[in-house]
Specification:
The protein is α+β, with helices and mostly antiparallel strands. 32% of the residues lie in helices and 30% in strands. A hairpin with a 5-residue loop joins strand 8 and strand 9 (204-206). The radius of gyration is 18 Å and the shape is globular.
Length: 247
């Protein structure tokens, strides 16, 4: 697992509890079948969700989208004490741009934050059932990180950290952390990895602005490294706290 400076482990902001769940693909296929054959029926997706699904032409992308919705809706339903049929998750905004998922419950907007990540073996979902907090989650293969990614997409400070550590796990961590921060903070802009910088002392910048009230957590699961970013929506500028969780 990544090693970070001790100062980075001291949290200046304690985020509220985030609910997260990982599920293997085979189990998700079974859950999808249960949903389509159960009370929710084959029309468990809203019309807007069906339109989003139709935009994915690649079969593997369609399957991943569906399985992410299965797990996401189950997580929201558990937190909201409701059934999944009244829950809607949309990942495209009014301009048809991919964006952070927007949530509805029984037709009313739900000011919670959801993030979904797909990997070779399964799907990971994180939910902040609170207003004012956003989350981003990512899964990365900790054994297959390519040095080419560091050369092209890491900032000079990140490249120094990666080379000094001489560990593909550090590279996988930095890449997954960039993805997680982007998912938690983006407002429809494209992913630009060099716009995000993560340093060993725990400080982080996005688009050259220091982030405050943000925490990163990482752990291993099913052969992957998972990174979760928890961000207070009203980010002002000081530092980011990185905590490493082992599992």
């Amino acid at each position: 697992m990544p090693q970070v400076a001790a100062a980075a482990l001291r949290a200046s902001w304690r985020p509220p509890r985030v609910v997260r769940r990982y599920c293997a693909l085979a189990r998700l296929d079974a859950l999808l079948a249960d949903i389509e054959q159960g009370e929710a029926g084959p029309n468990w997706l809203s019309q807007r969700e069906q339109s989003e699904l139709a935009a994915w032409r690649d079969e593997s992308r369609r399957r991943g989208w569906l399985l992410g919705r299965v797990l996401g809706k189950q997580l929201i339903a558990g937190a909201a004490a409701t059934g999944i049929k009244g829950i809607e998750i949309l990942s495209r905004d009014e301009q048809d741009r991919l964006n952070r998922p927007r949530l509805w419950r029984d037709g009313e907007p739900l000011a919670w934050s959801l993030s979904i990540s797909h990997a070779d073996h399964g799907v990971l979902v994180a939910l902040a059932p609170y207003d004012g907090v956003t989350v981003g989650v990512d899964l990365s293969d900790r054994t297959k990180f390519s040095p080419r990614i560091a050369d092209v997409w890491f900032t000079p400070a990140e490249q120094d950290w990666y080379r000094e550590a001489d560990s593909p796990q550090i590279g996988a961590y930095l890449w997954a952390a960039k993805e997680a921060i982007y998912k938690a903070t983006s407002a429809g802009e494209s992913f630009a990895p060099r716009d995000i910088e993560i340093r060993p002392d725990g400080k982080c910048r996005y688009r050259n602005v220091p982030l405050a009230d943000c925490q990163l957590q990482s752990w291993t699961i099913d052969g992957h490294l998972a990174v979760l970013a928890i961000v207070r929506s009203s980010i002002c500028a000081t530092s980011i706290t990185t905590t490493i969780h082992r599992r």
